[in-house]
Structures are given as structure tokens and as C-alpha cells.
Structure to design on (1500 residues):
């Protein structure tokens, strides 16, 4: 029988740590069917920061040592929001302690690490989830349902991208994000989101042919410093893919696309219709349906409303709009519901591992570049 | 000296009641400088519904009698989210008990009632606020600052609208919202939002010339019933206004505009620039600046980011987007900060009263219709 | 029986003169059913400019005296594209000579002049047309048809505007356009377009309540001059109107709206649907249809194609887009077809006179301002 | 010395034939500096159709035999708008007769044919042009200038597509367009446009890695027929490319993208800025400039106006909009000006040949598919 309350421990208090806090605080109000999350302990390398976060986010206690969360028997669930070099160690410890684990993406710097984490979780039968929040959008759920129901007919192609611009300035400093110890670069950081979205909508990606490159070859070591550090991770990844369903598509991940703050976008088309979405207008989905009155045919802008679950858990009237933190709330609520039901609603560690396989295949393809024809 | 914690009582658990709950739960995480809101009691006419809401929203207790909140000495702040016919009684009781009051809009069905409420609050020196959440948007704050700083030059005109479509169907049932006891109709319900926004951006409205009409003259009493109830409140209000600054504009309030879910929009133009905004894309503000390189001039789509306070309290990265409930969180946080500082950040009861004066002037103008020229 | 060829005379070689030339040159290719326009003579006050225009636009002859066109028996049709202070004299001369007349808008500075021109044309039974080109757009024809066919249900309201910014700079020079001898200002210049469009879509306007104002009270006489000329014509006109069909709306004309180059836009809504259009995207019409599957409802962006006559006369494939000069071609082709059939397709002089009646009623209403309530 | 008049012969009277006719008729009015085009003869396989076209388009004579145009000494210029299987024969005949040739795209079904045509034209020193009309847009000229002037900084990537949907229906009939005798399919038909645009903006494409596929494997032979014809040409082409400048990009050509009528679009980004364009809104260019006031930064929508040559040749006021046929007019005017100056303004046959080299390289790459990694 499922517990009515779940003790929550949060590791990390940065961008994603705060997002988890918001989400746990709002989840029950939006989803009355889930177990009540009780905010028990928050950890940060900086104990003072952890204490401040506890007060601000409403956690009962705090610590400067994340292992206190692992050791705490009142904590059922651990949220890991630290940089991804720490994910494996923390995750394995939490799993070993029998805790359910939500870990931010990308799951780990390497595929081998991810595999180890999947195996540990499955062996221990804990519920896992990885922070692919964008697919939690009601508009994405609608898109997936429409595709599954055949409303687009036979799918004939996909065109996806996740581009932002936080690395676009060649004079931007070298940071830990660019350390290859943390993973291969944009293909894992942003690429994993669009790969996840593609799989969510359309199923398995079976083949990849990729071109991955580093645009800014070195960056200043510090403000005012003339010393530059060579950059060994990639800035842009372009993938041509094939899906299990027999159709193809392209994916792009790009963190040097000047001016773009959140271009996580896709177009998917089938014999009977098409969809278009961009996270820049996350409460809208564009739908074209073939075969009606040609005089008034066109792309329809669907606005999110309570007819698109779980929007109604947040707002009873259409057009009022969800925000980024609401998507995170849906994500955490589904995680908690998965724990209650003993079955992850996903994406779980295994799904994150499958996503990482695409990342690694893209890297392998790009290294060989054998299909590239010189003109 | 301000209290570090404030006990919260919530009356009403519907659309707005839930929005208040979300907001109180998130406020401190987004605004660490405010007093900590402690959710102490929730009231609903239905005691069972109140109990359920307490559990779901995290209130310590519940009641079927709103006067229990008034009587509770641990409650410092009362949120009133019931239909507006109840606002006056509840508000006056709360003020009499020395509580700070947040009341949803419109403040009351009549100007006289509003005036009474303003006087009571000011006499008792409690902090008040009224639920005009849309102006809490960082994009609106930016717009206001730009106007005040002269970035548009001399203001030359305004064009505002708040249109939705929840009354567009002539076969939609007669409901309490259409009972004139609750107020004059759309001019108060949606009109107050666009009047509030116009005042927030541009200052006092000094003259009104209005045309207000009822589109659906009667509605079915019940599903399947042939009996129709005459509708005595208005469906569309059109206002031509003049502002204190000497320029003019138009305002429209419309709840029969089929297809529109949240067209709360304005254009404001001056000798040096223009702004355009619609709540349909609440994380964007369009800005045109005259006088630059004509070759690349045009309207710029500004995307909300941490450079637009208080966006950064919610999300550290640009382009991720706030939602409706986040605006409500800003609103409640500012209310609590106002209590801490002993000064309302607004819109307070007096501002709501000023808004209602515009509503009443519009009704008076429309009744006389003396400027209307027959062609 | 109708003539197979029509001799064309053009008076004026500026912005509109050139547009007429393009249109006459393209009309037959797009509309094979119309009489062949033969470009016989072009007139300009500057004989040299006229000669150059003849060569450039393909007219057989030219003159510095417009009366040569009137006197020329081979000319059946006269296009008048001079400033509107000259319209009456030229038009009456052309009519007296039995020629069909196309005159640019506004037809004349005063209603009395327009009436005289209408009477002359009707007495002589010549075909007339006035340059309201924007309603010639296939998307406007579609909109009108949809409204007439009841696809929006009972019409419940209209919101129209024509705003540009060519007068927005307070330091812009005083020009002939601002001379009240030419008419009242923006309400006639741009206002006539949106009034025309409203009438085209929805029928007669029966009542007007207006607020019309001059924003820039004086302007420099010349570059570098300190002398300023007082401006006696208006810059912004705001109208609240009622239509014959019993519903209301607003119209705005504005030539100081900084940043807007062609905001000729309307929204019209009815019990079953809505349309939205802006000339800024003239090949699109937005349509909302109530009552379908709520999950996928929304505004549909209809793109112009050959299914929207007479688009197909220009381009056989959808989405390729018409431009401004194509609208003018449609206009002139319909004028020539009207001549062939002995019946104007409109808007003819009478329609222009009706439009001017609305302009004058607006001015009268604004002067009295009796419904304006001071707050 | 250049001739003042040029005799024009047109072969083909379909979609593009008509577009050429419009363009020749309007060119001089928009571009007074070019030689006067005189419409001398039009040819069509159907002599009656040719005669009708002559009357409608204003050609002095017509013929059912295209060789009459070649043989006519009064014809200086030949426009070839027939299906591309006929291009080579007609072109070589016209060149042999010393005529300047405009040929629609794609230039020929094979690279070898194109090479032969280039050599013939260059040997005979006639001026040539190929119908890549979309790059004639003033917004494209602006984009190219901005890139060349360094306004985007160092270019870091490109993302282009040309998608329409005229082949999306699997039950659409088999037509001559699908006959491989005419070329490889969409990669040549639409792909050549986006390749042309990429080269126009960014220079040579040096490497291609492509995935090209046929979606609809067979199509009905005739209406009502059960017989299906196998389709041997491609429906979607996806290319990853590298440019001479060292950066990369993707291109897609797709004629089964349901709902898209004219998605000819690109994004290009550099270290200091980005541009976005779609032919669906051909009078707009989106520009992001890095490094300004972050508070008001964003993509600016530039609207076409007379400050963007040669827009002003058509319309003197901004925002009025050019259409597809106007782009064709620019194209033909530049062709005629090229003849007058003895130097093609392009794209000439050589450029079309270079484009075709990219097409063939894409096909070769796709056949080998060696970089494709199976997951």
C-alpha cells in the first residue's frame, strides 16, 4: 500500500534546486491525488546556503553534507540537482539507501555511468525520474495523443531543435560547464531535451548521422585575463535521424545561437496533418488538418486550457497560461504519483539511458564523418 | 517593527481561492525578503470542501463559517475570493478585527460600497490590496518604467482591450454572474482590468465617453428549459477616454468575443516610440524606438528574463516564462511586503475605488449618449 | 454592347499614378475577361515629367495639361491621382466629356463637393470608382462572404483601425497634406479606408460618437526654420459606431502611431465565430469557429491561395502572396469590367459619398462631445 | 553600346510563363534604367493557347512552334518556362542563335546537361539567368548585405528549409513531375531554392552529408484507377553542410510537409547577431543584435520599405508589401539590366550549375550513408 506522505530531501539549491522546491510546494494543490510531499531536508555544499534555502523554501532542516539526506530514515525521496559530475555518486548512495530518486539531466557524463545507475535502480526497485520537464507540458501531451491516435495520419517527418545562446559570446569565460569531465557539451546538455521530446512523441530513434562541432575554440580563463583555455566540448550538434516507425528527421542542439533564449521547437508532419510547437510560446500548439474546406484551411493556434490535462489542476479558465515552474510541478507530481503506484510515469533512468545512447551514437557518427561528400 | 511571520486566512476555495493558495505557498521562495506566510485557516460555505482544501493547499485548519477566520487572533491577513456580492460584509468584518485584507476584484457592486470599504480600511490603517494581478507582470513593470523614463517621448495615445468569450454563446445559461446585484456586467468584470492597466501605465483617466450594450438579451434558465431570463447587465463596453496627461485613448471590455480566451492587450504610442502587449503572450513586450537606423528599425520582441524584476526570483534564465499563477505570486508577495513596510504597494482599496469611478462614469455616459450623431 | 478596348488617360504620376500604371499594365493578364486597357495619354503639371512617365509606364502620349486628356476622343477612361483639392474640377470635366472616372480617395475635401460629383456622374450615367484598394484583397472578399453566409453567426461587434506613423514626428515639416483646404485630416485620409472596410464587411453605419484631436499643434515651416505653422487638421480620430444590423464597434484613424507602417486591421466577432485581419500580413485571415472539438479549437491562419478568387488570376499556387500593387490591379480590373457591364463593381462615387457622411458625422459628434463625462 | 529596346520571346504559358509575362510588363515602370522590353512572340505547344496568351499578355505574335522564336531576328531575349526536360534543347538552340536566355529552374535534369549549357552560353558570350526568384527579395538583399558587412559578427551556423505540401497526399496521382527523366525529385525542385539562398547569403558549400528518401512509394496512375505507379524520385532531402567560411548548417527540401504552402525559411547566426526569415512573410526580416541594452533586447521585425532597394521602385511608402510577382519583376529587370551592361547580375547558368553540384553531392552522400550509426 502506498504511503500518504513522502519525506523529501533536496540536494543542491541553484537554478534547478529552486525549481524543485517550487514544484514540491505546489504539487499537491494542483494534483490532489498524489502523496503529500513533506519537505524534510535540504543540502548544499555551503551549510549556510543550505540553512537559508531551508528557511526560504520551507524545508524542516538543512545540512552542508548531502550524505545526511541519504542517512535520514524520514526521507523517502531524493532530488539531485547538482552539476552532473556528482550525479552518479549521489544517486548510487540514495538507491543503496532504498530511496526513490529524481535526478536532473543529463543523467551522467558517460553512457557507462548511466548504465550503472539504471542497473542499480532497477535492482533496488526504486522509482526514478530524470528532469526532462519540457515534455510535461499539456501541449506536448496533446501532441503525443494526436500522433498516437492517427490524427496526423502516417508520420512522414520530424524537425526538431533546442537552441539557446548562453555560450554565443566568444569572449564569454571558460566555466565548469565546458569541462569535458562533465560530458560532451551541447549534444548532451540541450540535445538530450530534443532527443527526449522526439522519443516522447514518435518512439525510438534507430539511426543517427551527425555533424558536431566546437565553434569557440578557446575562451578567456578569467575576466581581464589574456590566458585562454582551449574548449574541448561541442557548441553545435546537427543530427539526421531515422525512427523506428520508418520515417526520418533532423535534430539540432545549439548553445551559440545568438538571440535565442528558448528555441526548443519541433515540426512533425504526417499524411493527414502537421503540428508545430516552440517552447518560446509554450501554451500554444499549431495544428494543420488536411482534407477539410480548403477555403478556410490553415494552421490552427490551439491555446492551452483545462481541456488539456493537467492544465486544469492549475487554472480553471483557458488562455491564462502555465509557466516553466508549472511544468516542473507537473513533473514532480508525476514522480510522486509514480512512487505511490509503484510504477514510474517517466522519463525514468532507463529512458535517460536510451537518450544518452543517441547522444553517444551521434558523437561516434560525427567522428567518422564518412558520408560527407566534398563538392 | 514588522512581524517575521504572518498568519493567513483564506475565504473561498474556487478559481481565485486556489490561485491565492498557490501564491502564498510560492511567495517566500521567490521573494526571500517578505514575511513568511503561514497558512492557518481556510473557509468555504461547504465545510467539507473547506476541509479538503485545507489538506490540499496546506492550511492548518478549516471552517464552514468565514467568521471563524475573522475571530481567529492568529490570523493577520485575510484573502477574500468569494463572489463580489459578499466582499463588503467580509471586508468590513476583517477590517474591524484589525486584519490586513486582500480582496478580489471588482471590489464591490457599487461605487458607494467601495467608498465605504476604503474609508473603513483607511480609518483602521490596515493594508489592503485588490486582485489586479495582470499588472504584476514584469513586462508591465518594464512598460511602465519605459513610459515614465520618457523612452516613448510624449505619450500620444492608448488603445486597450480586455476580451474573453465565456458569454459568447446565446444559449449559455443564465448564471449568478449575470445578476445585476453583483454589478453592472462586463464593464466592471473585465473592464476594471484594462482600466487598472491604463492607469498603472499612464495615470489618471479624467474623461469618459462610453457605449455599453447587452448583446444577449435573455438566456435559458436551465439546461433544457424553455424559460429564458432577461439579461440586465452588459456584454460589451466601449470607452473613449482622456488622460490627465492630455492625450486620449480607447478601452474595450467584451465577454462575448468568440474565440478570445485572454485578449488583455494594449498599444501605447508616443512621439519617440511605441509599445504593444497582449496577455496572450504574457512573457513578451513589443517595443518600437524611433530615430535609429531606418534600415533595421521595427518592433522588437522583448522576452522576459531576469533583467526584468522580479522574474529572476522565479527563474534565473531568460525565456523560460512565467505563468498566470506566478503573476498571482508576485501580487501576494507584494501585498505581504506592503504589510511588513506599513505601506501598500497596490493596487489598494483606494485604487480600486478610483477604477470603479471610471466604470460608473462610463455607465453614466452611455446612458445619455448625447454625442451620438445619427447618419 | 461593350467595347473590347478602352482608351486610358492618367492624370498624376506620383505614388498613386504609378500604382494605376502598374495596375493597367497587369490587369488583362490577370483578368482575361475584361476589356483591354490601352494606355493612351498621361498628364502631369510638369510636361517633362509627363513625358518621362509616358516612356516608363508605356503610355502612347503625354501632356502638361490635364485638359488634353479630357479633350481626347480616344480616351474612354480617366484615372485621377492628383491631390484631392483637384479632384472635383477634373472629375466634373471628365464626366461632362462622357468619360468613366476612377478617382483616388478621399473623393473631395467636403461632403457637398462629393455630392455634386455623385450627381454629375449619375446624371451622365458614367461608371465611377474610388481608390479604396484594400477591400479588393481576396482575404477581404472571403471575410465578407463568410459574414454574409452566416459563418460567424449573428454579428456582435467590430473593432477596426487604420494607423500609420508618417506624421508622428513633432518636428516633421508642415506640408500640403496638413492644409485644411484639402480636408479635415486623418479622419478623411486614413479613416475613410477603415470606414470603407467596415461598410464593405458589415453594411451601413448608422450612428457615430467620436473623439477627434490634433496631437502636433504646430510644425516647422521649413528645414532649419524657427517659424512654426499651426496645424488645423486632426491627427487621431476615435469613433464608436453602430451598424444597421444593430451591433456596435469602434474605428480609429491615426497617423501619429509611431512604428506602425500599415496597421489597417479589424476584428469582427459573432455568436459562432470571429475573424481577425491586418494589412501588415495581407495574405492571411484569422478565423475562429465555435462549437467544434474544444481540444483542437483555436484561430486558424488562412493563407491566400487560388481557392480565394481572384488570387488565382495572379498565381496558381497557394502561399506565394499578392502584394499591394496586385490589389490595385484587382481594383482597376473590376473598374474596367464594370464599364464593360455597364454597372460599377464599386466602391463608386456614391459609396465614397456615404463614407464621407460618416466622416462628417464623426466631426460633428466630436465638436459637441456632449456624452463626455468628467471623472 | 547597349540597345534601348530588347525584343522578348517567351516559351511556355503556364505558371511561370504567366509570371514572366507579368514581370516583363511591369519591369520598366519599376526600373526606369533598364532597356525597354518589347513583347514580340509567345510560344506554346498548343497554338491556340499561344494565341490566347499573346492577346492576354500583350505579345505581338504567337506560335505553336518554339523554334519560330529562335528563328526570329527581332527577338533578343528568350524566356524558357517549359518543364525541365525541354530546357537543354531549347536553351542550346537559343544560344546558338545568339540570344540571351532566361531559363526556369532547375536548369536541367542532370549535372552533365547543365555543364553543357554553361559551356555553350559562355562560349557564345550571351547573358543567362535562372529563375531563382526568391533571392530577389529586398529583404534577402538586406540580409546578404548585413552578413557581408559583419553585422552578425563571425557566422556560426545556418538552418534552412524549403517545404511545401503539394505531394503530401499518398493518393495524389502520379504526374510528370515524378518522372525521374526530369530529375531526382524534391532535392532539385525545392532543394535548389534553399541551396541557392544559402549560397547567396553565405558563399560556397564545400561539403554535404545527406539523407534523401521517398515517402510515398507508389501513386495511383489515374483517378479511380487501382493501378499504382512506383515513385522513383525523392520526397524529402535532409542535408548537413559545411560552408567555405568554415561554419556548418542544415538544409531541408520537402514536398510532403502537410499544411506548408511556402516554408522557404532560414535562420543564420553569428557571434554578434542573428537573422530569421520565412517566405511565408516575405516582407519581413527578423534581426537580433547582441550587446545592446539587455532590458530591451530581442528580435526586431524589420518591415520592407523604400529604404530597402529596390522596394521603392514599386511603392514609395513602407509596409505596403511586395508580392511574388514583384519578386519576379525584380528578377527579370536585373536580367535585362545585365544584358544592357554585358554582365549577368545572376544567378546565371554557372551559378545554377554550382547549385546542381550540391544536389548531386547530396544524392551521392545519401546513397553511401556511411556515417549513419545504428543505435
Amino acid at each position: 500500500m502506498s504511503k500518504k506522505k513522502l519525506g523529501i530531501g533536496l540536494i543542491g539549491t541553484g537554478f534547478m534546486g529552486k525549481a524543485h522546491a517550487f514544484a514540491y510546494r505546489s504539487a499537491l494543490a494542483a494534483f490532489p491525488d498524489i502523496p503529500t510531499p513533506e519537505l524534510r531536508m535540504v543540502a548544499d555544499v555551503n551549510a549556510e546556503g543550505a540553512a537559508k534555502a531551508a528557511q526560504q523554501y520551507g524545508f524542516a532542516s538543512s545540512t552542508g553534507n548531502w550524505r545526511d539526506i541519504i542517512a535520514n530514515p524520514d526521507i523517502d525521496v531524493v532530488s539531485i540537482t547538482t552539476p552532473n559530475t556528482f550525479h552518479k555518486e549521489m544517486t548510487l548512495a540514495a538507491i543503496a539507501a532504498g530511496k526513490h530518486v529524481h535526478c536532473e539531466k543529463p543523467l551522467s557524463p558517460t553512457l557507462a555511468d548511466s548504465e550503472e545507475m539504471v542497473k542499480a535502480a532497477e535492482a533496488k526497485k526504486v522509482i526514478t525520474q530524470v528532469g526532462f520537464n519540457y515534455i510535461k507540458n499539456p501541449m506536448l501531451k496533446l501532441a503525443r495523443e494526436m500522433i498516437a491516435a492517427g490524427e496526423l495520419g502516417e508520420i512522414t517527418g520530424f524537425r526538431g531543435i533546442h537552441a539557446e545562446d548562453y555560450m554565443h559570446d566568444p569572449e564569454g569565460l571558460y566555466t565548469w560547464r565546458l569541462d569535458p569531465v562533465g560530458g560532451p557539451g551541447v549534444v548532451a546538455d540541450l540535445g538530450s531535451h530534443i532527443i527526449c521530446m522526439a522519443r516522447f512523441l514518435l518512439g525510438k530513434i534507430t539511426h543517427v548521422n551527425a555533424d558536431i562541432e566546437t565553434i569557440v575554440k578557446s575562451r578567456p580563463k578569467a575576466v581581464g585575463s589574456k590566458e585562454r583555455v582551449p574548449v574541448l566540448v561541442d557548441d553545435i550538434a546537427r543530427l539526421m535521424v531515422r525512427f523506428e516507425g520508418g520515417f526520418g528527421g533532423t535534430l539540432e542542439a545549439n548553445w551559440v545561437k545568438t538571440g535565442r533564449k528558448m528555441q526548443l521547437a519541433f515540426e512533425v508532419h504526417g499524411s493527414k496533418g502537421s503540428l508545430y510547437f516552440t517552447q518560446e510560446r509554450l501554451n500554444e500548439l499549431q495544428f494543420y488538418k488536411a482534407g477539410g474546406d480548403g477555403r478556410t484551411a490553415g494552421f490552427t493556434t490551439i491555446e492551452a486550457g483545462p481541456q488539456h490535462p493537467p492544465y486544469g489542476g492549475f487554472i480553471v479558465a483557458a488562455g491564462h497560461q502555465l509557466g516553466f515552474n508549472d511544468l516542473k510541478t507537473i513533473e514532480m507530481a508525476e514522480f510522486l504519483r509514480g512512487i505511490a503506484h509503484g510504477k514510474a510515469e517517466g522519463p525514468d533512468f532507463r529512458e535517460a539511458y536510451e537518450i544518452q545512447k543517441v547522444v553517444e551514437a551521434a558523437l561516434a557518427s560525427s567522428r567518422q564523418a564518412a558520408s560527407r561528400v566534398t563538392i
